[in-house]
């Protein structure tokens, strides 16, 4: 890769999933000079690549920004850790590796809200274009892309029993969550290759490291965007202990995520006037919605003690068990070290009034009090369930003009009464599944939140006690046409020529599932909009899309 640092055609800020893909696509034309800037380091930390190593990456300043939320009234005043990737590959280097698109009606809803080109039939070819699916090309999957999707390399009897119990409770078993309707129960497919994490840096940067027109710089923290004649033209950043500006001849694209992108905008003088004036930042362009509309999936971690079951709690609790795990992984990259954090998934309706699945389960053959603490000494499994369509809304705000100061993160979990109602219904559904015949051989006993909690008010309190983020913040630079929207349907920042945003922050509403692969789709769309703005889809897939319609 080139190292000369004069002007570039495109500057991409943030080398998470979106930034890695976008840099790949923009630099495919050798005539375009592309600069990719990442505030974190390189992805050469060994625990990034061993799937179970997420336990050593989350909360580690080597790979995680280690943000904290404000104390949450809806969670009994608790402040939560708020992991965000701080390394090449971004959150794809520390996340759960689950390949999930969401539901067709998520994207149809975006389009119906005034964002043409974002309906399911528009975005399905984008998902397929980057995908390398283990089963090969099909109506809903691609196999020519870089984003590897594989089956997991282990299974657990207790998870098989949970799947059978879900079926007995009305949640059918399915094999593929990614065909537009994910309702059902099955094992997650994961972004791994032969038992090793497949992050966005491996997928989209490593194969093109010799492109002479692409420069990738790490440990470069972008402070703000600079303007010439009303147009975004440069970024100011801290690099090698000095302040440096980099110029873009064509466009700057922010891919810094739902925390980073609104923070950069606010430091640049783009955002809510009262906040900018309070901090002494000149208002370059007033956009009141910057940092607002924060949405996240809050998971309720129900834990059940077991009998007659072997779970990771016992295996990892002994020296011999740990040695066996390591030897098995060295032998064929399988066993517990190849585990995604959650192996079994389920999508279900919290009640008959729901028109589609509004709950997602992440079921794990392990338990612990909280992330970063040891596993319990007793055999147990965890059934984490989250509300896929939360009504609560929060915000991200910088606290000062200094980029070294962590921003205010206020998710406002469980602040909407509908979220409390769905949380109570989710606990009830979980209990129905666990009481189904298929699990009774294991004699499950509810450890958290506790079976004695039964009334609506008690279940609300239980949700406040056990709720925690599942790391899916989106929406803080929302796409739309109203006064609070930040970008238009072409991802251009309203009123700011030369500046786009392409990451999870542009989502008007959170998708019904894990958010990494939808973020890649957004970057794929951004590349299409920049390089071929009149295209509806990728030519090779247009015929297949028409046939599906």
UniProtKB/TrEMBL annotation:
Its cofactor is FAD. It comes from the Bacteria. SUPFAM superfamilies: FAD-linked reductases, C-terminal domain, FAD/NAD(P)-binding domain. Keywords: FAD, Flavoprotein, Oxidoreductase. The keyword RNA-binding does not apply. Residues 257-271 form the Glucose-methanol-choline oxidoreductase N-terminal domain. Transmembrane segments: none annotated. InterPro entries: FAD/NAD-bd_sf (IPR036188), GMC_OxRdtase (IPR012132), GMC_OxRdtase_N (IPR000172), GMC_OxRtase_C (IPR007867). Belongs to the GMC oxidoreductase family. This is GMC family oxidoreductase N-terminal domain-containing protein.
């Amino acid at each position: 890769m080139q190292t000369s640092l004069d002007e570039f055609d495109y500057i991409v800020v943030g080398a998470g999933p979106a930034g890695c893909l976008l840099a790949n696509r923009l630099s495919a034309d050798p005539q375009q000079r592309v600069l990719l800037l990442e505030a974190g380091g390189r992805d050469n930390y060994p625990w990034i690549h061993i799937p179970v190593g997420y336990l050593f990456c989350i909360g580690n300043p080597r790979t995680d920004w280690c943000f904290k939320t404000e104390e949450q009234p809806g969670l009994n005043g608790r402040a939560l850790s708020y992991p965000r990737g701080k390394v090449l590959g971004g959150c794809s280097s520390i996340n759960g590796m689950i390949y999930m698109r969401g539901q067709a009606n998520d994207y149809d809803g975006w389009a119906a809200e005034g964002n043409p080109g974002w309906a399911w039939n528009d975005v399905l070819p984008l998902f397929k274009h980057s995908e390398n699916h283990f089963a090969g090309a099909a109506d809903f999957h691609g196999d020519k892309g870089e984003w590897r999707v594989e089956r997991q390399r282990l299974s657990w009897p207790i998870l098989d029993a949970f799947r059978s119990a879900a079926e007995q409770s009305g949640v059918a078993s399915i094999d593929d969550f990614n065909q537009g309707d994910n309702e059902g129960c099955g094992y997650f497919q994961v972004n791994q290759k032969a038992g090793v994490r497949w992050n966005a840096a491996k997928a989209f940067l490593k194969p093109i490291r010799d492109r002479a027109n692409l420069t990738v710089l790490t440990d470069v923290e972008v402070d703000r965007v600079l303007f010439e004649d009303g147009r975004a033209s440069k970024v100011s950043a801290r690099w090698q202990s000095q302040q440096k500006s980099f110029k873009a001849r064509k466009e700057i694209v922010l891919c810094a995520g739902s925390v980073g992108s609104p923070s950069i905008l606010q430091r640049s003088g783009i955002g809510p006037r009262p906040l900018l004036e309070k901090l002494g930042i000149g208002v370059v362009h007033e956009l009141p919605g910057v940092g607002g509309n924060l949405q996240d999936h809050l998971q309720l971690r129900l834990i059940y003690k077991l009998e007659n079951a072997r779970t990771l709690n016992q295996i990892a609790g002994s020296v011999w068990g740990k040695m066996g795990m390591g030897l098995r992984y060295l032998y064929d990259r399988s066993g517990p070290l190849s585990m995604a954090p959650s192996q079994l998934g389920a999508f279900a309706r919290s009640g008959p009034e729901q028109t589609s699945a509004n709950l997602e389960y992440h079921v794990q053959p392990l338990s612990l009090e909280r992330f970063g603490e040891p596993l319990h000494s007793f055999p147990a499994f965890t059934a984490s369930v989250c509300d896929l369509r939360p009504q609560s809304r929060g915000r991200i705000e910088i606290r000062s003009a200094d980029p070294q100061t962590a921003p205010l993160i206020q998710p406002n979990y469980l602040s909407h009464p509908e979220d409390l109602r769905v949380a109570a219904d989710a606990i009830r559904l979980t209990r129905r599944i666990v009481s189904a015949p298929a699990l009774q051989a294991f004699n499950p006993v509810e450890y958290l939140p506790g079976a004695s909690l039964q009334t609506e008010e008690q279940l609300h309190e239980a949700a406040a006690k056990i709720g925690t983020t599942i790391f899916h913040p989106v929406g803080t630079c929302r796409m739309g046409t109203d006064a609070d929207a930040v970008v238009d349907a072409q991802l251009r920042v309203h009123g700011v020529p030369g500046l786009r945003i392409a990451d999870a922050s542009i989502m008007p509403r959170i998708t019904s599932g894990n958010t990494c692969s939808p973020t890649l789709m957004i970057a794929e769309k951004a590349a299409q909009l920049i390089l071929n703005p009149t295209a509806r889809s990728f030519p090779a897939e247009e015929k297949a899309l028409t046939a599906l319609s």
